[in-house]
Request: fold
Amino acid sequence: MGESTHPATERARELRQRANPAEQALWAVLKARRLGGYKFTRQYPVGPYFADFVCREKFFIIEVDGSQHQNNAIDRKRDEFLLREGYSVFRVPSGTVLADRSVVCDSILAALEGRIEDFVGAQDLRWERSYEVPRRVKHRSLWPPPTPSPPSREG
Reply:
């Protein structure tokens, strides 16, 4: 008998198997640290959502959007949640990925490296940097616990 897997893991697997051509094309560049040495994960769960691609080290999400995502209220709500969680969000239409993948990759690198504005809203992409401290960083101790002093040897 096999072990049962977490529902989020099953859903992520299903989403990866159903990746559209634009997601597949972008993944070919993102996997194995091929883009600037940054490590990306596909279909990563963040709260109730699954992000297409995430660089966990930089709290950076890339969403490849089909036409159904144009001015979508659900996506705006989702982005607000992700931004509050400390993730910056880079949205690009699937047609742009397929038409000019190298420009998309250059833009992703520029955003990761802080070489573009904190917010860009254009026809072919949307980028917004989060200024929230990511939840997992908030709960991590930034300093090691104090080391006890050795007993003094007073004579």
Notes: Residues 73-84 form the longest helix (12 residues). The two ends are 68 Å apart (CA to CA). Residues 140-147 have pLDDT under 50 and may be disordered.
